[in-house]
Amino acid sequence: MRLVMVCVAVYATFNAPNLAAATYWSIGSYSDQRNALNEAARIQPALSSAVIIQSPSSANTNYRLLIAADDPSVKPSLERLGIKGVWSVTVNGDLAKEQVFRTTNDTATGTETQADSAVKPSINGSTSWGVAGSFDDQENAVQLEAQLADHFEQVSVKEFLIDGRTLYRVLVGPMNDPTTARQMQLSEVDLSALWILRTEVQPTALTPIHIAPNGQNMVPDGRNIALLTIGDTTGAGTRALPDSSRTLPASGIKNDEYNLARLAIKDPPLITANKSNGRWSSEVGFESRVFRDPGLLNLERHHAAMSFQAEYYQTWNDGDDIFAFVPFARIDAQDDERTHFDIRELTWVHVADNFELRSGIRKVFWGVTESQHLVDIINQTDTVENPDGEEKLGQPMINLSLLRDWGVFDLYWLIGFRERKFSGPEGRPAYPFEISTDQSEYESSAETRRSDFAVRWVQSIGELELGISHFSGTSREPRLVPQFVLQNNLPASVILIPYYDVIEQTGLDAQLFLGDWAFKLEAISRSGQGNRYAAATAGFEKTFVGFAGGRGDLGVIAEYLFDERGAEGPAVGQDDIALGLRYAFNDAANTTALLVALIDRASHEYLTTFEASSRLGERLKLTVEASVINNTRNIPRGFLGLLEVQADPNADLAFLQDEDFIKFELIWYL
Amino acid sequence: MMKRRWARHFFSVLGLVLAGAAIAESAEEKGLAIAIEADLRDQGWIDSQVQMEMVLRNAKGNESKRRVRLKTLEVSDDGDKSLTIFDTPADIKGTGLLSFSHKQGDDDQWLYLPALKRVKRIASRNKSGPFVGSEFAFEDLSSQEVEKYTYRWLRDETFEGQATFVIERRPVDKNSGYTRQEVWVDQEHYRLLKVDYYDRKQSLLKTLRSIGYTQYMNKYWRPAKMVMLNHQNGKSTDLLWNEYRFSTGLTEKDFTRNSLQRAR
After folding, report:
1. Mean pLDDT (chain B, rounded)
2. Residues of B in contact with A230 (CB under 8 A)
3. Nearest CB neighbour to B248, from listed A185, A232, A324
4. pTM over the 0.90 mark
5. Contact between A516 and B125 using a beta-carbon 8 Å cutoff
6. What is the CATH superfamily name and number for domain B39-262?
7. What is the ipTM of this complex?
8. Alpha helices in A468-561 (DSSP H)
9. Which chain A positions have a beta carbon within 8 Å of B242's beta carbon?
């Protein structure tokens, strides 16, 4: 049984120390003196220092509640009362003429203090109910309860004694309960009129609650800072006055003097509309590539292609289950190998409180650097789609993603292996030798049916993004083993046979932001392809926001690419420098451009790439890409020339010498 | 900064001693009090979900539109967390922006690029840059914390029939694109009705008007429309807010790297 605390306000004269300037916490400011008195009555019992009500003066038009700031226990006590918005006030001279507020109470008990301490508690420590309606008439409340019970599992009518008057409130919740929260998201009830009652008291204790008269005596007040705080007193809530503009609920509820219900059952809002119904979207791309020179195997300089990608997306269980299907097709006028179909995504994701289970064909990206992606290993690269390695084939997998305080931990079971695709003899840019993917060889006897495994941990620690990963399985990147094709027992030509080793690769990726600087590192250590080796990409991107006084942002990129294998390693990345400029125009068309020069420090060859894109209207996007090789040794055409390229350690990129191109692609979003 | 503020306090106190006044509420204190009060009145909504349409208009009147969904989680001791998902234009559909704003220092921001499946942390010192090509800068849309500015009350004024406080606020962060802002706050409900933004050269850059305030949950006021006009380039951006919902049951887990990736 709770007792109503009766507060008796006593005015006394405060003989303040005659200090030149004393500091006080200002804990409330009211234009109506009654509000100031009520609030002081409420908080004084919990405080060891006197609450001072400062009368209006020429400098200050309000009644302010002040409390001496020299007592260190004051602020924690105020916080326990839910008063967080305090600021310090320097008062010059003495407060002799000010009124000091003291309270006495005849039936004060601990229970009331407990209720007071529940005023505006922290979000985590409290329980919240949604108040759907407040009624004088219990029958009305029960009616509304019945209506809402169709939408929420937890609806109850509780009796409140406020100002000596019994009021029946229809409560939904507690709202912190995930089921209720879920139902609120899904509900077809207009919840905009719902207000939140927040308390630390359990729902059973809410029937009936006798409310101290403090909060209820509040008068509507333009300067009433503390109204919110007081309104949240256990059980009291902000009491809005009965309002003729409020609409009655759908049916069955009689007019009621204290009818604060405004709920209306209505059509589901837009957010629910796109929740359960699947959505299709699709895009068509038209691509034209122009090469500067005839190729080694294909002399054609103009290449045209089309692509089509669709996406089906559906969620259910309020977004906790997601299904996505993304088929992709490319038709290339010249290259049969590039004419291909792929399922980029066919996936079901289930979201639970602490984990996500993602099953099906998916794409996963790991890493931070720009010039190459060493750590990224889950998906096979779709080299025929784009030689820059950014396009990926879908990978069948089951991925368990654990969400923990110490980061996100992902476990991958990669089911089956997808071979790398290479341009055919008709395709460009092409390797100068035919790559015979029909004869691909595998270290694993399971070949493409092998299951691979990977784990990754990723965490943001302040300005640092850190990822550590390990992959165990068939290398996505084959070694290309040359084999002579014999004619009349004489070597007539060379073909390359892809050989897929089983590797172990540990990767680290890190990115640190220091102001406009982003420092990036990707490093791997791989075993299984010859000796264990390490490779890394490290560098930075510095951003100039509003470059040269304009709207755009300029990014300057510098990265160093290192591979321990040196000349035995890949053509690109053993001892190279990448320098780049990125410019985001920040215009309505989202225009961006990126220029990167990759400099091979050993051979002094340059590979310069440029890409830019801009939106045209609402449904079209134009992208331009170009790639130019400079400074390659001029190597004679033909078979002997090719052998020379292969043998020359200073001609890493020479095989691309005739493959300079510019590509235009127009994507139309249907 | 701290020193300057104390110095200001000292001089205001000194001035009042000379004037013989007993109590001092300086223009700075009054400005701060107004900001704190506006902030207090907007606490307790826990989380919100809303749909927003941006209409970008150039000086010739050509329009370009974006539709986004915005989820926000109220964080009591720090700036709010928000997740913005783009529905249109089609080429950026599914792009997500996760933002943890902070009372002090730079916000943390991650961008999700659905085509590459890439989560990219972005340099959030980029406060003054335009948000998706609009006239709103990142800092105009991030959570407005009291600590992000210093304040000064300028005058009381009747603005479009409403009694308002006109306060000046100066960004604490030196990377802000503004030297100062003048804010019209209505005295009854402490809503921001108008903001004038002054650029680093002290000249008037933009004006924001918030129109059609509606009260939700008997407490929280939200505008139906915000119009940002850039005086220097003649462009403007409208934000049209729809389907506001509060206390929908969002938690910290709806604002993670994982939730950013699955929001489409």
Report:
1. 86
2. none
3. A185
4. no
5. yes
6. Lipoprotein localisation LolA/LolB/LppX (2.50.20.10)
7. 0.85
8. none
9. 270
